[in-house]
Design a protein that fits this description.
This protein is mainly beta. The protein has a 19-stranded mixed beta sheet, with no helix packed on it. It has a 17-stranded parallel beta sheet, with no helix packed on it. Strand 1 and strand 2 form a beta hairpin.
Length: 498
């Protein structure tokens, strides 16, 4: 009976004295409001419509007690600002040191603005911060070492600024960090070994900077890492074998550096890998056959290196592969017929190697192929008629090889073709009239072959043609009047005869 009375009294109090309920922001800090308002006053674009609610005096006395928790972009807990989201507000100005007055901040998002100047050292005092987004601004100067004090930080986004100097070694103290994105800045120096301490890290983006030195072997300790992008820097040395321990890795971008040595065979253990870009380096040795184990791979870029040996037939296992670039290496031997198994392939570039033998007929199975570049090799034999099956093809480069025999009439099926280059081969016979079916064609280069016969009248159907070069052949007869239909042909872009 006594407990019933107590409950009844509590209900009456709640009904008649609603202010008894705790309200979010009921005792918002005047210090926080003043700091934010002072910062707003420094903005170079005061007419920003997002900031109209940022006023120290409210028309409603009841609301004035909860400033700044009623302001746009601000959330509070227990009367203090804990979230500040001003993303994509077109703010022009600097980040003030007074930001440290917001001591209970857990989320800070100033991304996609026009903020300039340095990141304040005082930002390291925001020890409750979990999410810091300053990306896509014009911030300059070094990343302050004081950010190493933010030991609760989970995500750090500083990409697409103009930050310079080294990456602070104290970053290794941010034990809860899962995402670190510092790409597209002007950071230099070596990548700190202390990053290897970040055992929860999933994303590491340091691309498009000026980082130098080697990739530290401790990177192999980041067991949860799914995305590592270090491309477009000045990194040197070999690719550490320890990367083979990153069993959760999906993306590996190391392109456009100065890396040397071979690709370690343990790369075949990265079973979840979907994208591997190692192009534009000085890597050498043979391409490991273990890459054929990467059954989830969609992109493989190994171009512009010094790889030798043959293309592994195991590449035929990569049935999810969409893009394969191996151009500008020292690869030799034939094109494996197993490449014809890659039914998802849209781009195949094997140019500028020392490949020999005939084009496998199986390439005609790649019906999703948009670009095929086999130029600048030592390929020979006849061009297979099965190439005519590639109905999605827009670019076909077979120039600078040793192909003989005739141009397949099945090329007339390639009605999406824009570029066709067959020059500098040993092709003979007539130009097939079916070439006139290629109504999307803009560039047709057949020069320096042994072609004979007359120019087909059907070439007059190629009304989108910009350049036509048939020179250095053994063509005869009269030039068909239909060539006059080619109104888009550039002056000097047509060479029918030598």
């Amino acid at each position: 009976m006594g407990s019933f009375k107590i409950i009844s009294i509590f209900v009456l109090v709640v009904i008649f004295f609603p202010s008894f309920h705790p309200k979010c922001g009921a005792s918002a800090s005047a210090e926080e409001a003043a700091a934010l308002f002072k910062w707003k006053a420094s903005f170079l674009n005061q007419n920003n419509s997002f900031l109209t609610s940022w006023k120290l005096q409210s028309g409603n006395a009841k609301n004035s007690s909860v400033l700044p928790c009623t302001w746009a972009g601000i959330s509070c807990t227990d009367g203090s600002v804990n979230r500040l989201n001003l993303s994509d507000w077109s703010i022009k100005g600097k980040i003030p040191p007074e930001i440290c007055n917001l001591r209970n901040l857990t989320h800070l998002d100033f991304g996609i603005n026009q903020l300039s100047g340095p990141i304040p050292v005082a930002m390291g005092n925001l020890i409750s911060l979990q999410f810091l987004y300053l990306c896509q601004n014009n911030l300059t100067g070094a990343i302050p070492k004081s950010l190493g004090n933010l030991t609760n930080l989970i995500e750090l986004y500083l990409y697409e600024n103009q930050l310079s100097g080294p990456i602070f070694k104290e970053v290794g103290d941010l034990k809860f960090l899962t995402d670190m994105e510092l790409g597209e800045n002007q950071l230099n120096g070596s990548i700190p070994i202390s990053i290897g301490n970040l055992s929860n890290l999933k994303t590491l983006y340091l691309y498009k900077n000026q980082l130098s030195g080697s990739i530290f072997k401790e990177v192999g300790d980041l067991k949860f890492l799914t995305d590592m992008e270090l491309g477009e820097n000045q990194l040197n040395g070999s690719i550490p074998i320890s990367i083979g321990n990153l069993s959760n890795l999906k993306t590996l971008y190391l392109h456009n550096n100065q890396l040397s040595g071979p690709i370690f065979k343990e790369v075949g253990d990265l079973k979840f890998l979907t994208d591997m870009e190692l192009g534009e380096n000085q890597l050498n040795g043979s391409i490991p056959i273990s890459i054929g184990n990467l059954s989830n791979l969609e992109t493989l870029y190994l171009q512009n290196n010094q790889f030798s040996g043959s293309i592994p037939p195991t590449f035929g296992n990569l049935n999810r592969l969409v893009d394969l670039k191996l151009f500008h290496n020292h690869l030799s031997g034939p094109i494996p017929s197993a490449i014809g198994n890659l039914i998802s392939l849209q781009l195949l570039s094997l140019s500028e190697n020392n490949l020999t033998g005939a084009i496998p007929k199986s390439l005609g199975n790649l019906t999703k192929l948009i670009e095929l570049d086999l130029s600048d090799n030592q390929l020979n034999g006849s061009i297979p008629a099965s190439i005519g099956n590639l109905s999605a093809l827009k670019v076909l480069y077979l120039d600078n090889n040793q192909f003989s025999s005739s141009i397949p009439a099945t090329f007339g099926n390639l009605n999406k073709l824009v570029n066709l280059t067959l020059y500098q081969n040993h092709l003979s016979g007539p130009i097939p009239p079916a070439i006139g079916n290629l109504i999307s064609l803009q560039f047709l280069y057949l020069y320096q072959n042994n072609l004979t016969g007359a120019i087909p009248k059907s070439l007059g159907n190629l009304t989108k043609l910009i350049e036509l070069d048939l020179s250095d052949n053994q063509l005869n007869g009269s030039i068909p009047a239909s060539i006059g239909n080619l109104s888009t042909l550039e002056a000097g872009g047509s060479k029918a005869f030598p």
